[in-house]
Every structure is written in structure tokens, then in C-alpha cells.
């Protein structure tokens, strides 16, 4: 698809309408899950035509991945620079309150299961969620390296995303409690920063 065609597609829907559609998709996902969600249901919920939805997003996987991305707190690597890695990771964590974290945790558990039997969803998630977030983490970590907080050859650098996702997911699996700001902030101090050799104070 050429950039001109992509721009034409996007221009058919205003940003406000796009946000409205994404919210409806997330609501449906929470209600019925990925497998039971249909483009017909999205069209009915949003008073859209299926043709418009397919023209704009191509299919369910792309629409869901972009809706989840839209529902997450905004990108942080370029607009947060507190002067320390600890401060940047804290600022990232504090972008979502405890209620949002609980909702997102339940949603992501369901979608993680769905990716096992839906390669198109996994591919869309990699393109629109995993890769962009990994790139953002790399920028935050590069700033920490440039400041001298983290050694460039620290082997834990490549596992920061794994650690953050692991802490978020394991909270429910192990403790049977939703992730919270307090838990994740203590996890960053106790696990992530020490693994990177970064200051915790």
C-alpha cells in the first residue's frame, strides 16, 4: 500500500470518530473476547458500515491491535525525560491508574490467549504494540546509558521489556491480585533497576 493510499484511507475518518470506534472495540473485547468479536458487532455498536471498517483497517486483527494501542497511555520516550532511569520508569508506570491497570490486565490476558490460535492477531500485535513499545524502551535505556547510569554491555538491557511485562502479568497469576502502581513501582526498584545496575535511590 502506498503512503498516498494510506493517507486517503485515514482521512475518511476524523480523529474523534477514530477514538470513538476504538473505545467501542475495547468495550466489545471486554464483553465477549477476541474470538467472539465480529466486524458486524463493531459496525452495529459504532453505527458504521462494515465496508468502512474493512477499508480503514483491513480486518479484525488490525482493528483490535490499533484499538489496544490507542487505549494505552501515550508514547513516553520522547515526552518524558526526568533525568534518571528510575524517574522515567516511574513516570511511565504512573500514566495508568490502578483501575486502568486492572482493566488492561484482564484484557491483555484474553488477547494473549487469542494470539496462540490467531497468527494474524499476533502479527498485528507485534507491528502495533510490541515493536513500538520495545523501540520506546530502547530510547529510554539509551538515555540512561548516555547519562552513565547503565553500562552499555549490561546483558539485562535486552530483557527489560520481558521484566516489565512479566511483573505486570505475574501479579495476577501468582498473587491473585491485579497489578497496581504501588506494586509495579516496588518491582522496578527491587528487580528492574538492580538488574540494570542503575541507581535505585
Apparent shape: elongated
End-to-end distance: 49 Å
Largest sheet: none
User: What is the overall pLDDT average?
Assistant: 88
Helix content: over 70%
Count up the helices. 10
Total strands: the figure is: 0
Content-based structural category? mainly alpha
Rg measurement, Å: 19 Å
Question: Order of helices and strands, N to C?
Answer: HHHHHHHHHH
Strand content: under 5%
**Uncertain regions spanning at least 5 consecutive residues:** 1-11
Task: Explain the layout of strands and helices.
Elements: H1 3-11, H2 15-32, H3 39-46, H4 50-57, H5 60-71, H6 85-93, H7 98-115, H8 119-147, H9 160-175, H10 181-196
Protein model, in words:
The protein has 201 residues and is an all-alpha fold. The protein has helices spanning 3-11, 15-32, 39-46, 50-57, 60-71, 85-93, 98-115, 119-147, 160-175, 181-196. The termini are far apart. Mean pLDDT is 88; it is low at 1-11.
List keywords for this structure.
mainly alpha, 201 residues, 10 helices, disordered N terminus, elongated, 71% helix
Short description:
The chain has 201 residues and is mostly helical.
Amino acid at each position: 500500500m502506498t503512503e498516498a493510499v494510506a493517507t486517503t484511507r485515514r482521512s475518511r475518518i476524523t480523529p474523534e470518530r477514530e477514538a470513538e470506534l476504538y473505545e467501542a472495540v475495547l468495550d466489545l473485547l471486554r464483553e465477549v473476547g477476541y474470538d467472539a468479536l465480529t466486524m458486524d458487532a463493531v459496525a452495529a455498536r459504532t453505527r458504521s458500515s462494515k465496508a468502512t471498517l474493512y477499508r480503514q483497517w483491513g480486518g479484525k486483527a488490525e482493528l483490535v491491535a490499533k484499538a489496544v494501542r490507542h487505549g494505552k497511555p501515550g508514547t513516553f520516550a520522547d515526552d518524558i525525560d526526568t533525568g534518571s532511569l528510575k524517574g522515567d520508569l516511574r513516570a511511565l508506570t504512573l500514566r495508568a491508574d490502578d483501575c486502568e491497570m486492572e482493566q488492561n490486565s484482564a484484557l491483555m490476558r484474553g488477547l494473549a490467549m487469542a494470539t496462540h490460535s490467531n497468527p494474524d492477531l499476533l502479527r498485528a500485535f507485534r507491528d502495533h504494540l510490541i515493536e513500538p513499545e520495545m523501540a520506546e524502551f530502547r530510547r529510554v535505556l539509551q538515555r540512561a546509558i548516555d547519562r552513565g547510569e547503565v553500562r552499555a554491555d549490561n546483558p539485562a538491557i535486552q530483557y527489560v521489556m520481558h521484566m516489565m511485562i512479566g511483573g505486570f502479568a505475574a501479579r495476577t497469576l501468582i498473587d491473585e491480585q491485579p497489578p497496581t502502581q504501588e506494586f509495579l513501582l516496588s518491582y522496578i526498584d527491587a528487580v528492574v533497576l538492580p538488574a540494570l545496575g542503575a541507581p535505585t535511590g
